[in-house]
Amino acid sequence: MSDRERKYALIKLGTGDYLLPSNTGLTFYRITRSEEEGWDVFRWRYRLLRHDPIDVEDWSMWDCVSQLEETRRDAINEALRLGDGRG
Predict the structure, then answer these.
(1) Residue 33 pairs with which residues in a beta bridge?
(2) Strands 28-33, 39-44: parallel, antiparallel or unpaired by DSSP?
(3) Using one digit for the tens of pLDDT, what is the confidence trace for 33-64?
(4) Exposed, middle or buried: residue 53 (CB in 10 Å: 0-12, 13-18, 19+)?
(5) Which pairs with CB-CB distance under 8 Å and at least 24 residues apart come from 23-30?
(6) Cα-Cα-Cα-Cα dihedral of 76, 59, 66, 45, to 10°?
(7) pLDDT of amino acid 58
(8) Distance between CA 34 and CA 27 in Å, rounded?
(9) pTM for this structure?
(10) What's the order of all strands across the beta sheet hosting 28-33?
């Protein structure tokens, strides 16, 4: 898969744990390094408005949308491909 253009930078939450806004800023993705040595992509369950908080500690609010991407770049591209889609 080729690199997709992104509007926002990754926000590092911790080792192997990143937050990435969709290009519209309405959806947030969490990209994490899994124990199986791949990268997983999670989507925050709700669309965000301007000042909505995101609780990065509450994993029940994150839906896994992709697992075991080979590289962090692949996981980023998958999040960008999904965009604001909710399916």
Answers:
(1) 39
(2) antiparallel
(3) 987 789 999 998 776 665 667 778 888 989 99
(4) exposed
(5) 23/80, 23/83, 24/83, 24/84, 26/84, 27/83, 27/84, 28/54, 29/65, 29/79, 29/82, 30/56, 30/62
(6) -80
(7) 86
(8) 22
(9) 0.81
(10) 11-14, 17-21, 28-33, 39-44, 62-69
Question: How do the domains of the chain map onto residue ranges?
Answer: 11-82
- Band of pLDDT at residue 87, cut at 50, 70 and 90: very low
More confident residue, 52 or 84: 84
Cα 62 to Cα 4, 47, 49: the distances in Å are 23, 12, 17
